[in-house]
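Duplicate of #3305? Posting structure anyway:
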């Protein structure tokens, strides 16, 4: 027998806070969520850090970049030509959350009638599994879902959150995880909860998606700010969140600027990457990543990454490193057996990468996809 529960919500109208009683659908996740405890990570998302540098989709239909109040994600279509969603985001491979709270603020700034915020938690390698949160302030919609074994399963969803979600304004979104129990909080109110033991640990993804026709170019954009990741009060310390912050190899210029060590692979962490001039086996519809390192790059310098096919540039973007020395990785193309953009080398697709520093070419590399 389902039980109808009630929570008290807040709605801000012209500076007034009104108390409302909103129904919460009965769930299998039992009790009130544990409170957040020790802070593990705090990031305003307004500069390269936990989200890494600016990212532009190879298709030209999406971008993630920094603005004064946070990080903006713009979606105008499929990021990769083989995608089944119009979505842009970033997987934080240095942030692992077995148990804990992931909290941030979200605001829709364009196309709110077609846009949704996405948060993936306990993400498995190659996105083989995860828990997904979607929140749509314009529709008062939220859902908790599981992806495993190639199938999506909606754990909980509701469409009556219009009284506590503020379209066009900032909304606080938090996901708390403790063992099999999941709680979604919207503006500090428990909106959804569920129990599922499929995924026990993994990394975190933040992003946005746009609904509707995948082939039109209408923009939907959200701004994210003030990411906070915390452990839970009374939780097992061995399952607390863990974050490995980027470290500068040096804080002083010790020689001439250098860009190089270009490699390519399918794992966003760089595991299994092959050196420039190598051949990668085709993985159907899997993004191909490029990686490189830099040393002795002065503050404020711009590194330009150009992707070419047959001598023509089909994608190009810039990054401004926060450290004198470091390593960068980004997806740059998705290839299928029947299509792809690249020069032909021995019947295979080949892609050329050119790295420039403040307009001066510094390194080249290439990879074949067989």
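Output from current build:
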């Amino acid at each position: 027998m389902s039980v109808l529960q009630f929570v008290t919500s807040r709605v801000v109208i012209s500076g007034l806070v009104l108390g409302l009683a909103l129904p919460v659908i009965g769930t299998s996740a039992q009790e009130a969520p544990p409170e957040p405890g020790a802070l593990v990570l705090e990031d305003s998302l307004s500069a390269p850090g936990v989200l890494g540098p600016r990212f532009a989709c190879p298709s030209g239909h999406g971008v993630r970049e920094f603005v004064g109040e946070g990080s903006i994600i713009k979606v105008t279509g499929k990021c990769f030509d083989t995608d089944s969603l119009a979505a842009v985001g970033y997987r934080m491979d240095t942030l692992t959350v077995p148990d804990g709270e992931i909290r941030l603020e979200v605001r829709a700034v364009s196309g709110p009638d077609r846009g949704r915020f996405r948060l993936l938690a306990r993400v498995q390698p190659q996105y083989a599994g995860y828990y997904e949160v979607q929140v749509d302030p314009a529709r008062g919609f939220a859902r908790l879902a599981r992806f495993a074994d190639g199938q999506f399963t909606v754990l909980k969803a509701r469409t009556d959150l219009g009284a506590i979600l503020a379209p066009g304004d900032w909304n606080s979104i938090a996901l708390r995880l403790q063992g099999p129990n999941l709680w979604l909080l919207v503006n500090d109110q428990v909106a959804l909860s569920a129990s599922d033991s499929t995924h026990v640990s993994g990394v975190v993804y933040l992003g946005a998606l746009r609904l509707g026709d995948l082939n039109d170019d209408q923009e939907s954009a959200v701004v994210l700010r003030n990411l906070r990741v915390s452990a839970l009060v009374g939780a097992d310390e061995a399952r607390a969140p863990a974050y490995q912050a980027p470290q500068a190899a040096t804080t002083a210029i010790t020689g001439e600027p250098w860009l190089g060590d270009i490699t390519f692979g399918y794992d966003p962490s760089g595991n299994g990457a092959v050196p420039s001039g190598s051949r990668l086996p085709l993985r159907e519809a899997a993004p191909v990543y490029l990686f490189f390192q830099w040393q002795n790059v002065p503050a404020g310098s711009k590194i330009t990454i150009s992707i070419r096919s047959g001598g023509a540039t089909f994608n190009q973007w810039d990054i401004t490193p926060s450290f004198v020395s470091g390593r960068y990785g980004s997806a740059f193309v998705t290839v299928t057996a029947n299509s792809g953009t690249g020069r032909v080398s021995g019947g295979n697709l080949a892609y050329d990468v050119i790295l420039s520093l403040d307009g001066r070419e510094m390194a080249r590399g290439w990879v074949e996809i067989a």
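Confirmed duplicate; merging threads. Residues 1-28, 340-346 have pLDDT under 50 and may be disordered. DSSP finds no helices and 28 strands in the chain.
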